[in-house]
């Protein structure tokens, strides 16, 4: 217990220097916690938006369709059968399911035309799977069999549409012939999923199928499970039972672009952390060298008293660990306060985008809140401590290997 | 058997291309319990000789035998162990650790050999601090002590582990004559009570008066070696 006591006393010699070095580490930890919190918040909200408004927990579709789904093709569609639906209904943890048909549309207001995504929905079943109805800001959902449509308020604003107006939907059927749907706008929504607000029009499924000459074909089934994780595990239950080329895809598979983006963001976060901690490491190296120079005669005396180089290295490493510990604790406290403020007030994405609707590719708009985890706190604290100790090794070795005579007669 | 035996000891410092001899063939034996003073003009090689005996520096040639064992071929860690268990040092500039109290500075030396219980350690430290007259100042830090008091702490630190040999490099150089007298009395007492061997290097005639053996060194050679009763 003597060396720890000596280490603590040594740290008290130059409180301001120790505080400033610790503050750099604390700042690195704060930045990491805030970025990580933002990323966790974005991730959580992004997945929630995708699941609740776009993909559900699980989809069943033709595997060939799934590969090309972003192009909204009208081939490799699936024809609903009682057998498939019995398999769906037998899935453990199922809450509800619905059918959907995605297709390509050119939306026309008589003056301008805009390419958007059309989605045929089953008005009876869709609200049990998706939250779209909750985000209606005016009007109502379309009724089954009607030529009623709903769209994002932002898209309506862009196209000068109001409730009661007719939007002309120019579509190309499976046989590549052109057709139009004069859809009466009966509802406007504003969801936290920006691409839904900007570029999606919802129409009753049967109307879409008839207009596209698709019979009762759909692009996919969407399932809502009791919990998010069940969407991943149910894929393994369903796939063996489904006839090829049908396949089940979890929300993770349908969000692969987002997941890839999040992984890149994670690397970015690590790089930022590494850069700031490198600056902190330079501070530690500087502190240890200054301490050694100031205490050269003491070091010489310690060596004369028979202290081994390893023990002297331990003293300096202990001091660096102490600085890392102080910085770590300060950083965690600052990070916790930062996250509390972040969660209390949230961050308006439009503020980040300078008032616009840019979402940096995330399916998120409006106010976001931070996420946090104990693991992230433990990781960054341990990492800060590790970097502090690591940074001290070479200057500590340098100090410990000083010739005792030169050290004693330093002045 | 001599505690320390020096055989044809030479030390040459290399300053750029110039070889500067500091010791030119020293032969000397020091018996246990001796109170020896090495004196001579500045640059004569006193401190170099003390550093050689103290296992702080290596000779260019010749041999040092400490307690029957040659130390020439020992590694840095082995030399550190000899210093740790067998040697005590007292320097002109005290070299106390400023963040530790007088008690802790003395305790530090005994901690390194770590063979005492907490209570024993405490009793031993307080005993030696009382012996050097600092029992009531045990919890003062070095900046709260006078020069003489600091040197007494350094003496206590050197003696606490009951070393075979104490090396003191100009221990009274920073002290006034009255304080020097007190510190020398303490060391003399320890020499008599514990049979600790002392080797001083000094210019100070006051120190020489206390010595049982006077060794004069000039230009790296022993020019006089006189034992006194």
Describe the fold and architecture.
The complex is a heterodimer of chains A (411) and B (229). With 411 residues, chain A is of the alpha+beta class. Chain A contains 16 helices and twelve strands. In chain A, the strands form two sheets. A six-stranded mixed barrel of chain A has the order 2-3-8-5-7-6. In chain A, strands 11-12 form a two-stranded antiparallel ribbon. In chain A, helix 11 (256-294) packs parallel to helix 15 (374-400) and helix 13 (309-345) runs antiparallel to helix 15 (374-400). The longest helix of chain A has 41 residues, at 15-55. Chain B has a six-stranded mixed β-sheet, with helices on both faces. In chain B, strands 2-1-4-5 form a four-stranded antiparallel β-sheet, with helices on one face. The model of chain B has no long low-confidence stretch (mean pLDDT 90). The chains are: A alpha+beta (411), B alpha/beta (229). Chain A binds chain B through residues 2, 5-6, 9-10, 12-13, 297-298, 300-301, 303-309, 404-405, 408, 411, and chain B through 51, 54, 56-57, 76-77, 80-85, 87, 89, 91, 93, 95, 97-100, 104, 107-109, 111-112, 157.
H-E order of chain A:
HHEHHEEHEEHEEHEHEHEHHHHEHEHH
How many angstroms does the end-to-end distance of chain A come to?
A: 31 Å
Q: What's the structural domain tally of chain B?
A: 1
**Weakly predicted, low-confidence segments of chain A:** none
What spatial form of chain B do the alpha-carbon principal axes imply? globular
Give the overall pLDDT of chain A as a whole number: 88
Strand content of chain A: 15-25%
Kindly give the count of domains of chain A.
Answer: 2
Tertiary shape of chain A? elongated
Largest sheet descriptor of chain A? 6 strands, mixed, barrel
Distance between the termini of chain B: 21 Å
How helix-rich are the residues of chain B, as a percent range?
25-40%
CATH superfamily of chain B: P-loop containing nucleotide triphosphate hydrolases
Global Rg of chain A = 31 Å
Radius of gyration of chain B: 17 Å
The DSSP helix count of chain B reads 7
Helix content percent band of chain A: 40-55%
In order across it, which strands form the biggest sheet of chain B? 6-7-8-3-9-10
Which two chains touch over the largest interface?
A: A-B, 22 and 28 residues
